[in-house]
Amino acid sequence: MASPQPKPGILEISAYVGGKSKAPAGVKPIKLSSNEGALGPSPKAMAAYQAATANLHRYPDGGATAIREAIGQRYGLDPARIVCGAGSDELIALLTKAYAGPGDQVLYSQHGFLMYPIAAKGAGATPVAVPEIHLAADIDGLLAAVTPATRILYLANPNNPTGTLLTKDLVDRLHAGLPAHVLLVLDGAYAEYVDRNDYDPGIELASRADNVVMLRTFSKIHALAALRLGWAYGPPAVIDVLNRLRGPFNVGLPTQAAGVAALDDQPFVDAVKAHNDIWRPWLAAALSKLGLEVVPSVANFLLVRFADAAAASAAYQFLEQRGMIVREMGGYGLADCLRITIGTEDECRAVADGLTAFFA
Length: 360
Ligand SMILES: *Cc1c(COP(=O)(O)O)cnc(C)c1O
Known about the structure:
By secondary structure, the chain is α/β, with parallel strands linked by helices. The chain folds into two domains: 12-41 and 267-359, Aspartate Aminotransferase, domain 1; 43-263, 3-Layer(aba) Sandwich (Aspartate Aminotransferase, domain 2). Helices cover 38% and strands 15% of the residues. The protein is built from twelve helices and 13 strands. The chain has helices at 43-52, 65-75, 87-99, 115-122, 139-144, 168-177, 203-208, 236-245, 253-263, 266-289, 309-321, 345-359; strands spanning 30-31, 82-85, 105-109, 126-130, 150-156, 183-187, 212-217, 230-233, 293-294, 301-305, 324-325, 327-328, 337-341. Strand 3 (105-109), helix 4 (115-122) and strand 4 (126-130) form a beta-alpha-beta unit. Helix 1 (43-52) packs antiparallel against helix 9, helix 3 crosses helix 4 and helix 10 (266-289) packs parallel to helix 12. The radius of gyration is 20 Å and the shape is globular. Pyridoxal-5'-phosphate binds next to helix 3.
């Protein structure tokens, strides 16, 4: 008898590989591979998480009411148009499953987040990567790639792993050029790190358009990656679809509690942003001085280009042996680059010293 076979597309997935976290024995690891919060979570979020342990025997609120209301209040959004997920990863998977299937195409920018093609294949759809210009999404290229089979266009803005940003005008132009049946998903995982008045993470578009969804996460500036909490904001019809498809209790009780507390601790968020505003330019300058090309970033990480893939790989191993774990970029077609998360002051200094020693 033939063994059970998954649906077409599943075995074409190269499983997502997260940032590594192991250092050689006896070396304290410095993990700069997953764009996690440099300063750890808010003490208020930790306390709320701990307090929630008394109720671990209870099912969570399936409607995630308190956290949706807190998000709505924080950003001036209607909570009824918000749905929470176990990380934005879950929402990416659900949106893809809901709107794309066999014979359909899912567009994304060449160096876009790897979860987009993974989700597309998981839904049996065809992921289509559109080349970038100078490591930024190409609006005209994306529009030219739209076909009658296109169902979803994923755009991370700021983008991971490049750290580049599209202005609101450009995103509006992209949306204006899209057929109404294509769902534009704007992934603002790093939105809180941006302070430019020509940027919008998608709030305005997702408020007025029937085919735009914004995704956000608590994994980055709120530093709650372990808890898995993300949210989508969009038109009622799309939110309704997500609510039908998601698991009834997809976000855990301690996660919801910690999320509410994290949103309530704006001074902590401000401190994380202020830290990033100091140490991202510091690290960029230090690495530029070594002759490395540092892609200008608006997020909490830097994409750094080496002479070639061999040099990037050698630098990666040199750092790894000293306990510093950054991210190799071969999976993104950027094998000559490394991505480095902005860590604590000590971690930033350590990685700058490490690369200085590597080139010495
Ligand atoms: C980190 C990241 C996410 C967040 O994923 P979670 O599942 O919420 O942890 C989403 N999109 C991009 C582009 C990211 O870099």
